Amino acid sequence: MLVATVLGFVLARALDKAQLASWGWRLPFLLGGVFGLVGLWLRRSLAETELFEQTKTKARKLERPLLTTLTHHPKAVGRLVGFTMLSTLCYYTFFSALTSFAVKNRHADAGAVFLALSVGTALFIALQYPMGALADRVGRKPQLLVWSGATAVVVVPLSTLLGPGVGGLLVVFCVGLGLYTAMTSIAPAIMSELFPTELRGLGIGAWYNLTVAIFGGTAPLLITLFGAVSQTLYFWYVAVAAAIAFAVILTLPETKGSELR
After folding, report:
1. The domain that contains 96 carries what CATH number?
2. Ordered DSSP codes for 79-138
3. Which of 32, 47, 92, 240 could bridge to 219 as Cys pair (CB 3.0-4.6 Å)?
4. Tens-digit pLDDT profile for residues 108-145
5. Rounded (10°) angle between helices 98-105 and 166-184
6. 20 within a domain of the structure (yes/no)
7. What is the pTM of this model?
8. Coiled-coil stretches, from where to where (predicted)?
9. Residue 79 located in a structural domain
10. What is d(CA 145, CA 160) in angstroms, rounded to the nearest whole number?
11. Half-sphere exposure of 78 toward its Cβ, with a 13 Å CA cutoff?
């Protein structure tokens, strides 16, 4: 993500609009394709966990596993959808939708937007390990409550800082992505702890990606659509999602220090 935002900054500075429209926009996709192949190569060499190896026969015998997640683990599905809704909105808002919104709706300079996003992304990377360590100390649930509650409170005021000046953009991306690390630093653990091993891959894969498709996939469309009505309506939408996620997270059991089933 950091490479992508820095590349966006470089392209916005080095190329004019005509060059970007004709061929410059293809460069990030080509680079992403290379990284995709590298990722595929890396994943082929990963070993499965002992617990998976012990239960994969049981998993293969499951009939209608997707239905089983709903009938046997409805709370897990609901919780996963609840906090993933906000997580994916945070991701697509700060890493994707805000860039074009700031340029088109708030007349921000594209180079300034990518510069601020690059700084925010560097902070996002730097905070992953400290926030993960903090969750091991204070618990998953309190950290997620702070993330969702703070996002509900600050996302609308933050949106008013989007504009031509780089200072306001830095505050928006650093605060938004800084808060988001409270979730991303522990997201794999939180999701894995919701389902038993034999249903974990499907339980997370299906419901997580469906939620991402619905809420993340529509984020760029909605920020454009809502922007034509009100400059802050989309951010109120994110704030409502954050409030819902907060209520869902309140129902989560604390799993700090426990071992996966």
Report:
1. 1.20.1250.20
2. HHHHHHHHHHHHHHIIIIIHHHHHHHHS---HHHHHHHHHHHHHHHHHTHHHHHHHHHHH
3. 92
4. 988 899 899 999 999 999 999 999 999 999 999 999 99
5. 160
6. no
7. 0.80
8. none
9. yes
10. 24
11. 13
